[in-house]
Amino acid sequence: MGSTAPTDAARSETVQVRASRHTSAGGGLMVHEDAAKSRSTVTQEFIAKQTPGLNPMQLIAMLPGVNTTSVDPLGLNGGNLTLRGLNASQIGFTLEGFPINDIGNYAVYPQEIVDSENLRTINVEQGSADLDSPHISASGGAVNMYLLDPTEKFSGHLDGTYGSYNARRIFGRVDTGRIGNTHLKGYISFSAAHEDSWRGPGAQKKLHGETKWVNEWGQGNRISLAIVGNQSDSTLFPSMSLANWQKYGTTYTYDSKWNPKSPSANYYKLHQNPFTNIYASAPSTFTLTDHLTLTETPYFWYGNGNGGGAYNESLTSQQYGSQSLSGSIGQYNPSNTKSLLLYNPSNTQTYRPGAVTKLALHTGANRLMVGYWFEYSKQIQTAPYSLVDPATGAPLDEYGGGPNLVLSNGVTAQYRDTLTQTRIHTLFIDDSLSLLNNRLTIEGGLKYAMITRAGQNYLPNTSTGPYINGSWNEPLPAASIRYKLNDQFQLFASGTTNFRIPMNTSLYDAGTYTKGAGYSTKANPNQKPEISISEEAGIRYQGSLFNSTLTYFHYNFTNRLYTQTVVLPNGSYYSQSINGGGSHADGVDFEIGTRPILYHLRPYISAEYINARTDSNVAASGNGDYVFSKGKFAPQTPKQQVAFNLDYDDGHLFSGFALKYVGKQYSTFNNDTSIPSYVTMNVHAGYRFHNFGFMKNPVLQLNLQNITNNHYLGFVNGTAANGKATTGVFGSKISAGSTTYYVASPFFVGGTASVDF
């Protein structure tokens, strides 16, 4: 159950990537696997043939159980993912061993993580994260990303892409090679990308830098340092209701023109998403004795940015909790202005240091690992009101800087205003016994997680008061067994317990305050953690011609946590984190990939069938009633998925065709609203030229995404108890709930030239 970041030497990596054009299975979509649970891997060989710069969610779309959608072709605006029907906030993401998920709401922003050219592998653990994975939200699996190691000799890589929607991107990397007579080596890379919005006005822009340094000595001693910096500034794409999709289709967008005489909150410059991130991690391994190994992974996670919005605000009557006060901003006050369009971004600033420490004792057939994960994070979330330039319609400061709206009592007006400090102490122990000449491996372990949240809400008249504390202590056992029938066949089975503590937003009231109804986002702090128990059993075949895996899985959830929008009989509504009760699922995953067969072809097929059911009636309205959701199919979960990838590569000419089918997805718990199934197809082709002078491996390639230009709703963004008016379990009338969706990206063609030196 324990894991350690791969540490293949760079020379081995280079040989592996190049040789794998002729030997790897499925065109880089399958590797040799010995884990006693389901795990699928994408390698650099497959990644290098995709459109450069795609985010990690886009790159794993072909793997079994993965349902991923991007709202723009290059993935610069983020992405959405479910894995076996569980969304990204239930999946633990790591890069070089440190956690990527937001510490508050566990969201993943894949456009910020890594440049695809620097990725060595991405492995997807469909059922459970490893015991030593640093997560408090991985109740449904994990996605682990690893960077390439620096090369042994001085070298570099440069590529440039141009495509549809004025998309343009450049990437460069320089490897130092071994520095002098030392073992130290490293690389520095940089990329810049721009893409005009395909749906509506605006653009997506990104500057990204990465560096990795490695020093190795002796037998198994290694220190590494990886730093990632990212600065994005994108125009958001609006999600939409089914009614708006049916009425407007892809023309449902933000306004492209600003009218100073009639200011509109729907103007696109008021819906930006600026964000800056810095990630640093130093996964290092030390051989203390012939039998004892220490692995230390300190890390630091910094983020600062927001998602923008705007509202017409009254200066004569602003709510400060239950009080109604006047306000002023800059030169505007109640004596000269009754109301004003103000910019109101949802700012988040995160500081997140931590470390994972592991000791592994190898004594013959036994391996004992003990470890400790500590993290102390600080997250500040605000939403002040600031000025809009009356001439251009753009915010004076995208980050919501002053002048800000100040109330008559001297307090700065805020839509939300919280500070969350999270302390994590996690102990884990794992024991593995290898018998019968390594044919039989039995493993068992226990993780004990102790998490506390100290929250402070600076808004007045909240239901929980200004100070809110939460604590959760969870024992999480795991066990697995793997048996090798021979060199080709493996049988495996595992049982794991995973959890996800409530999001920090569940601690706080926030939003608009209405007398008699309170805040539009209501706290629900006394929730138990979401617990999942996952079992898997499977068989692998790994032969000279092909690899394949067939896995049966079952999971059972208790205290399933959801964020729900509740529509009241009077038409008002509020959102709240709720306990959705239990759910369970049974399913089968399958994948098969060949090594080169006729004419250098390597096909790959993955498929999933899942039967996921809700075990409880879900709360629907503010009067305490429920919808009849017990036994219904789980939302956001396609019953069937099939992926097919065909790779051709003769060493110079390469091409490929990829197809993905995703079944219907319900968007409500009582299954009265859904989005239909869809099919997407991608094509690529390229040619590797002979070396020319100092230029090595010059390549030209063409990538076409969604070649049929299929316009479809690709992701259920906001689930609800019911999408249509209905009668509840207790006989009350329940108004139609609010469900929203994201439109998937359209046809895209991009051309790329790359060269090594």
Automatic annotation (TrEMBL):
It comes from the Bacteria. PROSITE patterns: TONB_DEPENDENT_REC_3. Its main location: membrane. It holds the Pfam family TonB_dep_Rec_b-barrel. The keyword Membrane applies. Residues 33-132 form the TonB-dependent receptor plug domain. It is a multi-pass membrane protein. Residues 242-707 form the TonB-dependent receptor-like beta-barrel domain. It is found in: Cell outer membrane. Residues 1-32 are annotated as: Disordered. Keywords: Cell outer membrane, Membrane, Receptor, TonB box, Transmembrane, Transmembrane beta strand, Transport. Belongs to the TonB-dependent receptor family. This is TonB-dependent receptor. The lineage of its organism: Bacteria, Pseudomonadati, Pseudomonadota, Alphaproteobacteria, Acetobacterales.
